[in-house]
Amino acid sequence: MAAARALVDSPFEQHLAQEEAKDLLRFLTCGSVDDGKSTLIGRLLYDSRNVFEDQVHAAAKATRNRAAGEVDLSLLTDGLRAEREQGITIDVAYRYFATARRKFIIADTPGHEQYTRNMATGASTADLAILLIDAQLGVLPQSRRHAFICSLLGIPRFVVAINKMDLAGYDRAVFERIRDEFSGFLAKLGAPAPYFLPVSALAGDNVVARSRSMPWFDGPSLLEYLETVGRGGSNLAGGLGAGTGFRMPVQRVSRPDRSFRGYAGQVASGAVRPGDVVTALPSGFQSRVKRIATFDGDLAAAFAPMSVTLELEDPLDISRGDMLFAGSAAPYVARRLEAHLVWMDARPLDARRRYLLKHATQTVSAEVTIRHRIDIHTLDAEPAQTLEINAIGVVEIAATKPLFFDSYKRNRVTGSFILIDPETNATVAAGMVRQPVVAARGAGPVTAAERTARWGHCGAVIQTETADVAAALERALFDRGCSVAVTAGESAASALEGAGMLAILVKPSAPRRDVPAILRQLEERGVLVSRDTVSAGGGI
Question: Which of 253, 381, 230, 430 lies closest to 324, judged by CA?
Fold first, then answer.
């Protein structure tokens, strides 16, 4: 007993406990090409003593015959062969380091326009963005583009590091001119109180220690600011959109034996405990959580971003792509939504084509209508027929089946999606949901097309052999959101079919079929949207 207590109280265990108690800040460096992002991170790691000696020796060896000083600090993050050959960043490089006050995860992102998609990937999980601007070149289009993308992704804190001040003679006027120009652009984005500071990543000025070459600047150094800045009040803090309540898209139904039925997925936001009432979408049925099962045993609570299996008290009909939620604020349930879209493919957006939309655990076919493109220089809306690579616009998405989502400002997991080209299987765009689209009510009579758009099916008469099969089929179709009713006469069934509804007619002479077989036939006939045509069936 004493030995166990001594182990817990050992300096090593105390050190681990102190490290676990530290706050974690995720941040990225972004900006135009050759603004010094990798060098800044290398300097930050080197001067804060977060680099091993063998890494420094390897970087020094690779620096030979290069005009970057004794050690090219950018090589501490640029590890790909192509990156070292060309002297650029291509892929996102993640590095972990810690100080006495805080833990950090850095994402070093590329500045080239053709790698904007990689920059967006690094920004998608960041709490803070460090935007670098070359003091000699000033604000460039890629500087504005990266700032806009960071704003769309909900990053609440901005640091603008005006780099290469040594090449500008540490001139205060250069710093103030760029600060005044870029602060106006950030104000249009709604960035709260961005922190501007002059730095020289190559010389180490204002990176870890304050610069003696710029006595006119009295603000904290970059590391001092990172150690003390708050994480902000956006959906980044508090568990990936905790303000929306519990959300868990269902990835799969676990049925190892007859005694257990669990719904597995990753908690997108909020927390859940045994006894909590959860609602399943799209059916709207409710039940209580009976167990939270994991490989390591049952849990007393689950929260984002844990992957768990929930067992409910009632055997609800839930499948992959459905969502479990709790709380007073329910997700939106809609086929049409408005979103910001960042186009990432060399082939421009074609509004005449259908794309696959990947949202949470659903993959559905969708059409895209462009509302306008956003000018990254002025942030003004301009008419557009297409979006080319790296263009940003506001679009309307029309999916073939309902999606369960929140606005991206409230929940970055359930408010984000990607578009996939069904021909190449390439990711062509990233989207951030703004709001659902409510179709305008027409002044004329309701058309068959409007009914099909509302219910997701066209009218049909379905014959079943028995009343029991008819009742079970009605329940299955109703749970899918269909407008359906069981009728007793052929004339009533024909009237319902003409109104775009599904009429179930009991006829003893009808072929003997079970409910799954009938549903498959309706999908094959095009009456219902087939799940196989709108779901890729891949992992999360």
Answer: 253
Please check whether residue 431 is in contact with residue 392, taking contact to mean a CB–CB distance below 8 angstroms: no
Three-class secondary structure of residue 104 per DSSP: strand
Cis omega (within 30 of 0) for bond into 445: no
pLDDT on residue 41: 87
How far is it, in rounded angstroms, from Cα 28 to Cα 45?
A: 14
Is residue 217 within 8 A of residue 393, CB to CB? The reply is no
DSSP conformation letters of 331-388: PEEEEEEEEEEEE--SSPP-TTSEEEEEETTEEEEEEEEEEEEE-TTT--EE--S---
**Could you give the C-alpha distances from 149 to 117, 412, 435, in angstroms and in order?**
10, 14, 18
Instruction: Please give the Cα distance from 299 to 313 (Å, whole number).
Output: 16
Please report the sign of the dihedral spanned by the C-alpha atoms of residue 383, residue 435, residue 251, residue 316.
Answer: negative
Contacts of range 139-142, beta carbons closer than 8 Å, 24 or more positions apart: 139/178, 139/181, 139/182, 139/185, 140/32, 141/32, 141/376, 141/377, 142/31, 142/32, 142/33, 142/111, 142/113
Nearest Cα to Cα of residue 197 among 168, 147, 216: 216
Are the C-beta atoms of 334 and 359 separated by less than 8 Å?
no
Q: What letter represents residue 447's amino acid?
A: T
For residues 135-149, one letter each, b for 16 or more C-beta atoms within 10 angstroms of the residue's C-beta and e for the rest, the string is beeebbebbbbbbbb
Q: How far apart are CA 80 and CA 93, in angstroms?
A: 10
Task: Report residue 74: phi and psi, to 5°.
Answer: -65, -25
Q: Which residues of the chain have pLDDT under 50?
A: 1, 65, 80-88, 233-240, 242, 530-540
pTM, two decimals, is 0.71
Q: Return phi, psi of residue 340, to 5°.
A: -80, 140
CB distance 118 to 90 below 8 Å: yes
Q: Which of 490, 16, 410 is nearest to 245 (CA)?
A: 410
Please state whether beta strands 502-506 and 381-382 pair in parallel, antiparallel, or not at all (unpaired).
unpaired
Pairing of strands 195-198, 128-134: unpaired
Q: What is the pLDDT of residues 77-136, one digit of tens each?
A: 655 444 444 444 556 778 888 888 899 999 888 877 777 878 888 888 899 999 999 999
Q: At what angle do helices 141-152 and 172-189 cross, to 10 degrees?
A: 40
Q: Which residues contact 453 (CB under 8 A, 6 or more apart)?
A: 335, 439
3-state secondary structure 173-223: HHHHHHHHHHHHHHHHHCCCCCEEEECECCCCECCCCCCCCCCCCCCCCHH
